Amino acid sequence: MTAMALEREAARLYVTYMRHLRDCPRSHLGPACSDGARLRKAWTAAQWASLRARPLSTGEGASNA
Predict the structure, then answer these.
(1) Is the pLDDT of residue 61 over 60?
(2) Nearest by Cα to 14 from 43, 41, 45, 51
(3) CA separation, residue 53 to residues 18, 19, 29, 36, 44 (Å)
(4) How far apart are CA 9 and CA 32, in angstroms?
(5) Is residue 65 over pLDDT 50?
(6) What is the pTM (predicted TM-score) of this model?
(7) For residue 41, what pLDDT is reported?
(8) CB burial of residue 4 (10 Å; 0-12, 13-18, 19+)
(9) What are phi and psi of 41, to 5 degrees?
(10) Between residues 8 and 31, which one has the greater pLDDT?
(11) Residue 35 near residue 25 (C-beta atoms within 8 A)
(12) SS (H, E, C) the chain
């Protein structure tokens, strides 16, 4: 998958997760909702995948430290 496709997937999962938080009657302060935990984990994994897929910036102003 390209970085852009991974970013779209992360955005889609974020919207799905936010919709779930809005519509789910359970408390999301603890492990009461396994669907919410699963969606959050998938969203986080998609975010990291999109970050790893981006090329490193080597242009002017890029930090190589």
Answers:
(1) no
(2) 43
(3) 24, 27, 32, 26, 14
(4) 26
(5) no
(6) 0.69
(7) 93
(8) exposed
(9) -65, -40
(10) 8
(11) no
(12) CCHHHHHHHHHHHHHHHHHHHHHCCCCCCCCCCHHHHHHHHHHHHHHHHHHHHCCCCCCCCCCCC
Q: What is the pLDDT of residues 12-34, one digit of tens each?
A: 999 999 999 888 887 766 667 88
Q: Over the range 13-35, which residues count as b (16 or more CB within 10 Å of their CB) and which as e?
A: bbeebeebeeeeeeeeeeeebee
The amino acid present at 2, given as its one-letter code, is: T
Count of C-beta atoms within a 10 Å radius of residue 39: 20
pLDDT of residue 11: 93
Q: Length of the chain, please? A: 65
Place of tokens 């090329």: 55
Average pLDDT over residues 36-54: 89
